[in-house]
Amino acid sequence: MAVSSKDSAANPEEMRARLLAMQSELKARLGHLVEDLAQPLDPDSSERAVETEDDISLEGQALLVSRELASVNRALERIEHGTYGICVECGAAIAAARLDVRPEAALCIACAEQA
Ligand SMILES: [Zn+2]
Q1: Distance from the CA of 109 to the center of ligand 1, in angstroms?
Q2: What is the DSSP string of the chain?
Q3: For 5-39+47-114, CATH number?
Q4: 91 C-alpha vs ligand 1 centroid, how far in Å?
Q5: What pTM was computed for the model?
Q6: Who has the most CB within 10 Å: 28, 86, 105, 110?
Q7: What is the pLDDT of residues 46-69, one digit of tens each?
Q8: What is the CA(75)–ligand 1 centre distance, in A?
């Protein structure tokens, strides 16, 4: 029996709620990271090298969080446009199990593996 895209698509209202929760959590994390990045280094500290390395990893974290936030925002836009759960690359339905793990997923498994 063939499964239509409607059957495999997750409930958009439920996914919207999950994405909005992710969005506010990511925004809070990004806010904390930006705050930490804004802390000036202590020039007299013998741990300056360590602090600098920490700064790099904070920047890396901030970059990752902002990318994830952008993915979540795009997923919310797809819900608004009624295209949520459809692969942006090939137009196939994204498996509900995949959306359950990654609600912000924009690609089906096949396209994600090629990326
Ligand atoms: Zn695809």
Answers
A1: 7
A2: -PPPHHHHS--HHHHHHHHHHHHHHHHHHHHHHHHHHHSPP-TT-TTHHHHHHHHHHHHHHHHHHHHHHHHHHHHHHHHHHT-TTB-TTT-PBPPHHHHHH-TT--S-HHHHHH-
A3: 1.20.120.910
A4: 6
A5: 0.77
A6: 105
A7: 555 555 666 668 889 999 999 999
A8: 15
